[in-house]
Each structure stands twice: as C-alpha cells, then as structure tokens.
Amino acid sequence: MTPRDVLELMKQHNVEMVDFRIVDVPGRQHHVTIPAVEVDEDMLTNGIAFDGSSIQGFRGIEDSDMVMRPVLETAFVDPFMAAPTLAVSCNVFEPNGTRFERDPRYIAEKAEAYLASSGIATTAYFGPELEFFIFDDVRFESSNRGAFYAVDSEEAMWNTGNGEKNLGYQVKNKGGYFPVPPIDTQQDIRTEMVKELMNAGIRVERHHHEVATAGQAEINFRFNTLTRTADTVMTYKYIIRNVARKYGKTVTFMPKPVFGDNGSGMHVHQSLFDGDTPLFFEQDRYGNMSDIALHYIAGILHHAPAILAFSNPSTNSYKRLVPGYEAPVNLVFSKGNRSAAVRVPVAVVSPKTARIEFRTPDCTANPYLAFAAMLMAGIDGIRRKLDPTALGYGPINKNIYELSADEKAKIRSVPGSLEESLQALEADYEFLLEGGVFTKDFIHAWIDFKRTNEVAPMHLRPHPYEFQLYYDL
C-alpha cells in the first residue's frame, strides 16, 4: 500500500482516528492515537515521535527520543473502538532515520534479509498454531503479606457441583478435544473471533475446542512470511482478547494457567522456498524430507536450549514443558509423532506443503524474536550440513513417553527452567549474530532483563504451595 492508498481507505470507512502501534521487547503492544484530520501522506511516510524510555527494553530516559513509522500493509479497521479507527503497526527508528537495533520487528526483517543473502533460499514461511484459554473470571494477587491466583470457567470440570442450577455438560480433564455443543459452550465466541480476524485481513483456516478443561481453544490462520506472520500474531492476540471482553470473558495465552491438565503451546510450522520452488520436499525420503530440511531440523534441535530463551521466555513456560501432557520436551524429530520436539507432518499432499513443525514454543514468546531465532538456527544447520541422526536426534517413531528407562536415557530434553534456557543462550548465541541479525548488546540485555524482572522475583517470593508443604514443620 502507498500513503495515498491508506488515505483512501480512511475515507472509505469514514475513519476518525488512526492508531499507531509498536511492540516492546517482551512482546506487548503499545499505541498512540492521532485524529484522522491530522494524518497526511507525510505522517504516513515519516511517522511520529515518541518517548522510548517508557517502552520496556528500549532506552533510558537520557536518550529517549524515537520515531515510529507505519508499515502500511498492516493497516486494518479496528472493530473495538467507538469511533471508526484505523490501526497500523510501525517500525521504530532513531531520530537520525536509522533503524532502532532493539526493535523486535527489525530483528525479524534482518533474519529474512540474511536468509535471502545466504543463497540458501529466498523466503521462509511460518505458520504458528496458537492455543489459549477463555475464562469467565481470573483473580490474582502478589504482595508482601500473601499471594494467590484463581481462574474459573463454566466449562471447568471443577464446577460439576457448583451453582443453583447445573446442566452437567462440563468438559472433563483432558476431554476437551473436538466435543460438540452443549459441551463446547464457546462455539459462538470463537466464530466471532474468526469473523473479526477475517475482517482484519487474516486468512483463518479453522477453529476448535482444545484438549484441556476450562475453555481451552485454538484458532489457526494461514502461514505467511516470517515478519508478516509475526505481525499477524500480534493482531490475532489483540482481536482474540477484545472479542472475549465483549462477551464478559477473559483470554490468557499463558502456557500453564490450569494445574493438572494440558497447557497451551504455539506449534510453529516452517518451510523454505527458493522463489516458487519448495526446498523441504524430496519424494521417498523419511517424511519426504530433503537434505536441506533435515539440516534445518538439526539446527533447530542443536540450538533448541538457546532458542527456548526466546520461544519459551516465561517462568510459566516450564510448567507446561513436563512429560505426560503432550508436551514436546524431547529433543528429537519424528514423522507424525506429537511427543517429539520437531514433528514432520505426514499429511503432505504436495511438495509445497512439505514443512517441519517445532512444537516446543508457546505464546508468551515475542513472535518477531522467536521466529528469527528459529530461522537462524535452521540456517546454521544448513550451512554446517548438520545431520540430525548423526547428532542423536532421531528419528524416533514411538511414543516417547512409553519408552523404557534405558531408551529414554539416550534422549536429550529441553531445559527445565527459564534460568537454564538463559544459561544455554549465554553459552550458544554466535549463530544468532550472523548477518547482524541479533547483536551481543541485545542478547545480553534480554538475558539481564529476564533475570532481573522475572527469574529473580520468582525465586524471592514464597509460593502458596510451600505453606501446604512446610507450614506445620
């Protein structure tokens, strides 16, 4: 789109406000709103100034002047504002016109540029599957005198005996995959989410209830190039949350908000193309995977502990990554096996659908950073011709959770905590620096931010369950 196209779009929809949006380093959106009468071609080209010191992970107050410039093809009419509003994502620039190195969107774009310059492929396609919970109520507190959390859902199994009138259609633990109404009470809300996603220009493929009780859901959208897919993830989260709010409900993308049932992941499908030629397909090989695909898989699995610092970047992430809940904790690849960290989908009907699926990530990831880290790991595997079988990553075609103790002992696992992933990133980040995609400054700042703001505070606080374990000792 051109600035003139956007102005025409504003006229067609009688837009009164334009919402400029950026993404901070952890992965949250921020916005500033400009009256439409003040928006012209110059503003749509050169952007607007803002205070970078107020954005997590950006700048200190002593050097805070920054500029956000709209990425015009991301524009959509926001359905949740009372006044007709056009929302548009932005890139972040220095006042002198250069790109800001810590802008997550810039890192994603640099990863794509590095792939194109490598001669390996021209395009990387990403297709994440986001899972989430739709709750009726959430309450939490953390103070010096106490801490608690509580979630609730009319669908939850724990509500079979509650209320003045109970119809008994609650979802059983691990019984939420594909039930029809009346057990699935969220068909209509998911359908409205889909309609709003489509209105925003997102191509939706399906929606359904997920495995866990208490309102777990999944809505899948069409794959796209790396940065545009990350843009879609941000718009997706925004729309999902706001449709839920219209219904008096609340959505969380936390990996493990419910104890004792399945958590929520973000399985990421990935493939490489050279122009229109798919590079991951070779007939009659394992999973119809080419050598390039196998090298890519090896790169993902070899660097997975470090990747998880970006793809599973919350302390809650590692409450999901435990055996027994379909969680892909094992660093192996497999054809059609969902207990492996990397799955090769077997329902490949054409060379263009050949892809790999990295199942470990979750939705607390900043998608720009996580997708970039995955691509850089895959490129490293291709450049070094890493062999996943020679490195001990499979393939394994059995249910890994049912292997013998001796067989399991040979399989490496993902890190068990955010701190372990951060340590892995400290020890293995050179592959991310290729082509200037990530910088040492950014990686060290990310590690420091996570340790200071998330890992250390969690270690300092008493846990409610500790009172059950130790209060009477």
UniProtKB/TrEMBL annotation:
<feature type="binding site">
    <location>
        <begin position="262"/>
        <end position="263"/>
    </location>
    <ligand>
        <name>L-glutamate</name>
    </ligand>
</feature>
<dbReference type="InterPro" id="IPR008146">
    <property type="entry name" value="Gln_synth_cat_dom"/>
</dbReference>
<keyword id="KW-0436">Ligase</keyword>
<dbReference type="InterPro" id="IPR008147">
    <property type="entry name" value="Gln_synt_N"/>
</dbReference>
<dbReference type="InterPro" id="IPR004809">
    <property type="entry name" value="Gln_synth_I"/>
</dbReference>
<keyword id="KW-0547">Nucleotide-binding</keyword>
<feature type="binding site">
    <location>
        <position position="338"/>
    </location>
    <ligand>
        <name>L-glutamate</name>
    </ligand>
</feature>
<feature type="binding site">
    <location>
        <position position="338"/>
    </location>
    <ligand>
        <name>ATP</name>
    </ligand>
</feature>
<feature type="binding site">
    <location>
        <position position="352"/>
    </location>
    <ligand>
        <name>ATP</name>
    </ligand>
</feature>
<feature type="binding site">
    <location>
        <position position="210"/>
    </location>
    <ligand>
        <name>Mg(2+)</name>
    </ligand>
</feature>
<keyword id="KW-0597">Phosphoprotein</keyword>
<dbReference type="InterPro" id="IPR036651">
    <property type="entry name" value="Gln_synt_N_sf"/>
</dbReference>
<dbReference type="Pfam" id="PF00120">
    <property type="entry name" value="Gln-synt_C"/>
</dbReference>
<dbReference type="InterPro" id="IPR027302">
    <property type="entry name" value="Gln_synth_N_conserv_site"/>
</dbReference>
<feature type="modified residue" description="O-AMP-tyrosine">
    <location>
        <position position="401"/>
    </location>
</feature>
<dbReference type="GO" id="GO:0019740">
    <property type="term" value="P:nitrogen utilization"/>
</dbReference>
<keyword id="KW-0460">Magnesium</keyword>
<keyword id="KW-0067">ATP-binding</keyword>
<feature type="binding site">
    <location>
        <begin position="269"/>
        <end position="271"/>
    </location>
    <ligand>
        <name>ATP</name>
    </ligand>
</feature>
<dbReference type="GO" id="GO:0005737">
    <property type="term" value="C:cytoplasm"/>
</dbReference>
<dbReference type="GO" id="GO:0004356">
    <property type="term" value="F:glutamine synthetase activity"/>
</dbReference>
<protein>
    <recommendedName>
        <fullName>Glutamine synthetase</fullName>
        <ecNumber>6.3.1.2</ecNumber>
    </recommendedName>
</protein>
<comment type="similarity">
    <text>Belongs to the glutamine synthetase family.</text>
</comment>
<feature type="binding site">
    <location>
        <position position="131"/>
    </location>
    <ligand>
        <name>Mg(2+)</name>
    </ligand>
</feature>
<dbReference type="GO" id="GO:0016020">
    <property type="term" value="C:membrane"/>
</dbReference>
<feature type="domain" description="GS catalytic">
    <location>
        <begin position="104"/>
        <end position="473"/>
    </location>
</feature>
<dbReference type="InterPro" id="IPR027303">
    <property type="entry name" value="Gln_synth_gly_rich_site"/>
</dbReference>
<keyword id="KW-0479">Metal-binding</keyword>
<dbReference type="GO" id="GO:0046872">
    <property type="term" value="F:metal ion binding"/>
</dbReference>
<feature type="binding site">
    <location>
        <position position="267"/>
    </location>
    <ligand>
        <name>Mg(2+)</name>
    </ligand>
</feature>
<feature type="domain" description="GS beta-grasp">
    <location>
        <begin position="13"/>
        <end position="97"/>
    </location>
</feature>
<feature type="binding site">
    <location>
        <position position="218"/>
    </location>
    <ligand>
        <name>Mg(2+)</name>
    </ligand>
</feature>
<feature type="binding site">
    <location>
        <position position="359"/>
    </location>
    <ligand>
        <name>L-glutamate</name>
    </ligand>
</feature>
<dbReference type="Pfam" id="PF03951">
    <property type="entry name" value="Gln-synt_N"/>
</dbReference>
<dbReference type="GO" id="GO:0006542">
    <property type="term" value="P:glutamine biosynthetic process"/>
</dbReference>
<feature type="binding site">
    <location>
        <begin position="221"/>
        <end position="223"/>
    </location>
    <ligand>
        <name>ATP</name>
    </ligand>
</feature>
<feature type="binding site">
    <location>
        <position position="326"/>
    </location>
    <ligand>
        <name>L-glutamate</name>
    </ligand>
</feature>
<dbReference type="InterPro" id="IPR014746">
    <property type="entry name" value="Gln_synth/guanido_kin_cat_dom"/>
</dbReference>
<feature type="binding site">
    <location>
        <position position="129"/>
    </location>
    <ligand>
        <name>Mg(2+)</name>
    </ligand>
</feature>
<feature type="binding site">
    <location>
        <position position="205"/>
    </location>
    <ligand>
        <name>ATP</name>
    </ligand>
</feature>
<dbReference type="GO" id="GO:0005524">
    <property type="term" value="F:ATP binding"/>
</dbReference>
<feature type="binding site">
    <location>
        <position position="320"/>
    </location>
    <ligand>
        <name>L-glutamate</name>
    </ligand>
</feature>
